[in-house]
Amino acid sequence: MGTGRAAHDPEVTTRLVTLVDDLGLSTVADLWSARPARSLPGALWRLYALREWVRRTPEQASREYAAGIRFTDVAHAVAGIAEPPRPEEMQRVADQILEGVFEGDLAVALERASAFCAVVAAGRAEIAHDRDGADPGGASDLTRTAAAMLTTGEDLRACANLWRSGDLD
User: Fold this and answer.
1) Among 19, 79, 132, 169, whose CB has the most other CB atoms within 10 angstroms?
2) What is the pLDDT of residues 135-152, one digit of tens each?
């Protein structure tokens, strides 16, 4: 990360943002997924995993995000996603958040990702509520993944605070 932040080179930043495209998510997982969630490697793992999820399923990400907007006005504003949240917009913002890790204020990038997670979590919970009568198993799965997404967002927000205090390792 230090090299990427020091480079001030758009090509280097692009290569770092698309790292998973070249190496594969499993390689990045081998490097960072076992690290504590509230650590720099743990935060980076979560950011790359979020980007990969949005890249692979932009329609689902868009649908879940859209369902959560009305419950999370502030988080939606912080995430910075235009309305309606089209799939290509979701992909663009996921890339922008990672670009912010290397070119901007890391804490702001982490807060944007945290806000994104909060909106998606609210959307999944809303979709689960709507499906509960017709598909209890699917609704239960959505509720479980909504809780996991919310936890990811909380961890990313905590990492932003740790970065600001100089305690994110």
Assistant:
1) 79
2) 999 999 999 999 999 999
